[in-house]
């Protein structure tokens, strides 16, 4: 099959022919329809976050099940089903998974995120000469990918598979931030700092959960304009306005109950913290490019009873089906968020545009192109 392989950050992605993988116990083989292009991939492509090479990235996928591995009787999964695959692939066995905390799965972090393998300690991807190729999540920048059965959810027929690729990371991460990180309540006020792929979904999901005010903060006017279409009630361009002043003015001097941060830089942490009300919750989902730190004003946090509630992905097994339901019912307008489609061959160019801040919403690799 064809796959976009990363051998060296200096070279970038290169499409190669590698062996078509086979699913093992409690796994499925998916023929990829589309794969979303996430900012997290950029950290690996640029060599900022350590990951074994060669590897295949791509962790936000839709496609059709074409083969079941053994021991799938209990899953209800069948060949021919259209599915969404989530980046956060819980093992279902560790103590965190047993408590329902898929987002903390030790096996996923230790074997997949650190070593690029699945849960028998081996990769499913090999070059034609037998060379091992690491998998970032399921390695979906390819014609086929193997996904643990815990991490796929069946899609209704009316979900459009190509833009639907974003459900497995951008939308699910946003759902996790709103439902789990913030535990957002009807009528609360919200700021969303950085309205890219994930931030755009946070806006829509906050609206669906009943946020009374949604203030989008970004550095690009076109992205802020798009944010309004998705449900932002106000926008702040942080290159033109002071975020604290603007948000406090918009909220009658109070600040917001919840400030989501969706980029992972010191300046976006600062913007989110500066938007908070007394007792407010700051929910960061942005990942830094390697080890990064951000400043937190000690006395303000203490005296004003503010919290910082990190949120990674969501609880895949229960949350991915909810995300799909929200998309099917129109609460998540995933088609509107996807503004660009690239062929697998042009995936590298797409990531260059993402790195340059030129992608509004989300871009996807469409395997039919
Ligand atoms: N926690 C998780 O589970 C999880 C999952 C997916 C992605 N991520 C991380 O979330 C972050 C966002 O990913 P994405 O794919 O949405 O990124 P993206 O590239 O699509 O969007 C980034 C946005 O930030 C805006 N921006 C740039 N500088 C800014 C600034 N100073 N202030 C405000 N906005 C600014 C850009 O204009 C753009 O709209 C990344 O760090 C990614 O690694 C985390
Ligand atoms: Zn992602
Ligand atoms: Zn686990």
Automatic annotation (TrEMBL):
SUPFAM superfamilies the record matches: GroES-like, NAD(P)-binding Rossmann-fold domains
GO molecular function of the protein, one example? metal ion binding
Boundaries of every Enoyl reductase (ER) domain copy: 8-365
Q: Superkingdom of the source?
A: Bacteria
Q: What is the required cofactor set for this protein?
A: Zn(2+)
Keywords carried by this UniProt record? Lyase, Metal-binding, Oxidoreductase, Zinc
Signal sequence range: none
Q: What is its EC number?
A: 1.1.1.284, 4.4.1.22
TM ranges: none
An example of a Pfam family matching this protein is ADH_N
Q: Which InterPro entries match?
A: ADH-like_C (IPR013149), ADH-like_N (IPR013154), ER (IPR020843), GroES-like_sf (IPR011032), NAD(P)-bd_dom_sf (IPR036291)
**Family under the similarity heading:** Belongs to the zinc-containing alcohol dehydrogenase family.
Protein name stated in the entry = GroES-like protein
Which species? Mobiluncus mulieris ATCC 35239
Gene label = adhC
């Amino acid at each position: 099959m064809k796959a976009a392989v990363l051998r060296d950050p200096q070279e970038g992605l290169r499409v190669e022919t590698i062996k078509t993988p086979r699913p093992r116990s409690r796994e499925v083989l998916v023929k990829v329809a589309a794969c979303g292009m996430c900012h997290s991939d950029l950290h690996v492509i640029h060599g900022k976050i350590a990951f074994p090479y060669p590897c295949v990235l791509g962790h936000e996928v839709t496609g059709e099940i074409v083969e079941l591995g053994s021991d799938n009787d209990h899953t209800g999964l069948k060949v021919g089903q259209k599915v969404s695959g989530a980046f956060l692939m819980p093992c279902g066995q560790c103590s965190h998974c047993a408590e329902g905390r898929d987002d903390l799965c030790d096996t996923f972090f230790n074997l997949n995120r650190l070593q690029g393998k699945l849960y028998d300690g081996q990769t499913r991807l090999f070059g034609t000469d037998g060379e091992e190729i690491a998998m970032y999540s399921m390695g979906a920048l390819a014609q086929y990918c193997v996904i643990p059965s815990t991490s796929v959810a069946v899609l209704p027929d009316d979900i459009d598979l190509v833009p639907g690729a974003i459900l497995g990371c951008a939308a699910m991460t946003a759902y996790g931030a709103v439902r789990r990180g913030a535990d957002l309540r009807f009528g609360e006020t919200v700021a969303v700092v950085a309205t890219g792929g994930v931030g755009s979904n946070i806006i829509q999901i906050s609206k669906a959960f009943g946020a009374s005010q949604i203030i989008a903060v970004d550095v690009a006017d076109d992205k802020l304009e798009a944010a309004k279409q998705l449900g932002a009630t106000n926008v702040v361009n942080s290159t033109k306005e002071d975020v604290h002043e603007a948000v406090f003015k918009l909220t009658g001097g109070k600040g917001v109950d919840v400030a989501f941060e969706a980029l992972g830089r010191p300046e976006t942490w600062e913007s989110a913290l500066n938007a908070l009300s007394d007792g407010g919750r700051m929910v960061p989902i942005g990942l830094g490019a390697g080890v990064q730190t951000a400043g937190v004003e000690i006395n303000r946090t203490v005296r004003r009873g503010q919290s910082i509630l990190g949120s990674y992905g969501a609880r895949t097994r229960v949350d991915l089906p909810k995300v799909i339901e929200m998309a099917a019912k129109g609460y998540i307008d995933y088609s509107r968020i996807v503004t660009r489609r690239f062929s697998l061959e042009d995936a590298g160019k797409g990531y260059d545009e993402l790195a340059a801040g030129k992608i509004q919403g989300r871009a996807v690799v469409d395997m039919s192109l």
